[in-house]
Design the sequence.
């Protein structure tokens, strides 16, 4: 059992002491015995002590050789077999180790450390019946060590004998009295035997033995709930509600009870009280809040309840970075990005080495559209965490939006050099690299980058659309552009941007009639508020002989463009009433 794996290393440490004591007993003889010590005794001691020295240095193979040499001189010494057992266990010769441990116990059956080593070796070999028999002997030798009863109980469970495990804990209770560790272990055993009534009796007995302990009462109430007896559970919770200074886990237990009985206001009230308790594990609170974030909705009522819990959490644990971090997650969920930035800055004051917090900051700055600040953070984060790909993507976005095109290319290239498995991040980095090449007139590099993306994701609609449109603007590879655009229409037949791109390619191919059909459809599918689509519609109308209608559309497009984006060519078309190339 977990509880005792922490004890055994200590026991093995004591084994060195036991060996030393054995040696001391061996050498502290009467003067008469000392005088008759033989050469064989001296040789035994020399090899045995050398074996101990080599063992302490971790030289197990050499130590084993020395112990075996000692055995050639005297072969009836329990400490020697104990050391051989330990050495062979270290070397992985477990069967041999068991044989030596058995011999050590045979020679000195009352030595506790020899017996404990033998139990461990039996356990490691899966010989649980032998281990439990040896453990029974250990309890006979040391009946006042509670952990030995737990070890024996665990061994009985391993061989499918829960009744014997229970009887072992009963013996422990007779010796040590009613204690929580024994009662809770018995309760667990009864539950595993599908005897909930017996399990309840154990905790009831524990609660009666310690009537002032509210935790035992809460545990009993929870067992009643599990067994379907909500009436008795209610009686206990009614008693607990009148108890002062309840701990957080008990308040949480009461809250969960009222949640089950659909008394939601009382459940929420006790939940808030639990969150206000400093003794309640902050990780438990955070786990509950994370669950709330992912399972509850965003109605005003739900958000208000969540906000109160988060505020209570932060107020109770003001210096806990995990509490502040999950609070920032809540603020992001409810789109209160400015406040989220304030909270994350507070976290970063003492936790600059936590990458995910920096990533959250980049995400929020992107949501705010504050690309200047986002650019500065990206520069910091890529320095602190040079092997994380996502900050390079955010850096590319910020650099592109702030027209730092050389820096955008640098970020994208550095991000792509990092080995990672996220295909979407790779596509996004390549996309910004291609877009920047196109923006800066490096068309061949742009095209080759878009081709790389389409090899990874052949149906990437964003790239298919932009790549096709750029080719049409350059009057290059129009047939290729047409095929890409046709695929777009197949994927999303009512998307105004894709309809416009396809129509514009047809226009460049001088198929004006069909071009008008698709651009008109783009206009009627929501494109009437997009200046480029409206202008294209005017151009297509002009090529189909409807010059008056085209001027009206050009004027509408001019009204839709931002002043800085409106082209002189459009103004010239309106002024002359005809296309520039005529």
Sequence:
């Amino acid at each position: 059992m977990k509880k005792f794996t922490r004890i055994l290393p200590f026991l093995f440490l004591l084994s060195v002491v036991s060996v030393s004591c054995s040696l001391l007993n061996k050498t502290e003889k009467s003067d008469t015995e000392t005088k008759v010590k033989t050469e064989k005794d001296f040789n035994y001691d020399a090899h045995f002590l050398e074996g101990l020295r080599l063992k302490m240095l971790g030289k197990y193979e050499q130590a084993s050789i020395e112990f075996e040499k000692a055995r050639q001189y005297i072969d009836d010494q329990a400490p020697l077999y104990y050391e051989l057992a330990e050495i062979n266990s270290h070397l992985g010769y477990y069967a041999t180790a068991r044989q030596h441990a058995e011999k050590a116990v045979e020679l000195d059956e009352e030595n506790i450390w020899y017996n404990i080593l033998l139990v461990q070796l039996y356990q490691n070999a899966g010989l649980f019946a032998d281990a439990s028999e040896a453990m029974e002997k250990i309890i006979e030798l040391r009946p006042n060590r509670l952990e030995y009863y737990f070890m024996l109980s665990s061994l009985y469970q391993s061989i499918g004998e829960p009744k014997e495990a229970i009887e072992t804990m009963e013996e422990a209770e007779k010796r040590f009295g009613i204690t929580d560790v024994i009662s809770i272990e018995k309760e667990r055993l009864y539950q595993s035997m599908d005897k909930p009534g017996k399990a309840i009796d154990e905790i009831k007995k524990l609660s009666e033995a310690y009537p002032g302990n509210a935790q035992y009462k809460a545990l009993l109430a929870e067992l009643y709930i599990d067994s379907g007896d909500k009436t008795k559970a209610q009686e206990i919770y009614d008693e607990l509600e009148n108890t002062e200074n309840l701990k957080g886990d008990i308040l949480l237990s009461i809250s969960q009870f009222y949640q089950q009985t659909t008394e939601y206001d009382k459940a929420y009230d006790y939940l808030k009280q639990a969150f206000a308790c400093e003794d309640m594990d902050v990780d438990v609170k955070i786990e509950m809040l994370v669950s709330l974030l992912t399972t509850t909705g965003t109605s005003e009522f739900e958000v208000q309840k969540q906000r109160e819990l988060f505020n209570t959490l932060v107020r109770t644990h003001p210096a806990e970075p995990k509490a502040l971090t999950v609070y920032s997650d809540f603020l992001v969920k409810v789109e209160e990005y400015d406040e989220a930035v304030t909270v994350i800055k507070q976290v970063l004051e003492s936790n600059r080495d936590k990458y995910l917090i920096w990533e959250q900051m980049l995400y929020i700055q992107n949501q705010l559209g504050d690309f200047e600040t986002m650019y500065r953070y990206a520069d910091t984060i890529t320095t602190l965490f040079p092997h994380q790909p996502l900050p390079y993507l955010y850096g590319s976005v910020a650099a592109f939006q702030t027209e730092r095109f050389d820096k955008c290319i640098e970020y994208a290239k550095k991000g792509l050099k990092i080995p990672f498995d996220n295909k979407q991040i790779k596509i996004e980095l390549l996309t910004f690299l291609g877009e920047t090449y196109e923006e800066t007139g490096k068309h061949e590099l742009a095209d080759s980058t878009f081709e790389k993306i389409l090899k990874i994701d052949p149906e990437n609609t964003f790239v298919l659309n932009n790549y096709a449109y750029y080719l049409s603007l350059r009057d290059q590879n129009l047939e290729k552009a047409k095929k890409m655009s046709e695929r777009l229409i197949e994927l999303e037949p009512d998307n105004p941007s894709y309809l416009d791109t396809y129509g514009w390619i047809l226009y460049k191919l001088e198929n004006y009639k069909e071009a008008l059909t698709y651009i008109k459809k783009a206009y009627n599918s929501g494109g009437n508020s997009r200046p480029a689509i409206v202008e294209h519609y005017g151009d297509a109308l002009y090529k189909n002989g409807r010059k008056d209608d085209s001027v009206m559309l050009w004027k509408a497009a001019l009204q839709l463009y931002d002043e800085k984006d409106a082209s002189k060519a459009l103004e010239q078309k309106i002024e002359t009433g005809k296309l520039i190339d005529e």
Observations:
- The longest helix spans residues 8-27.
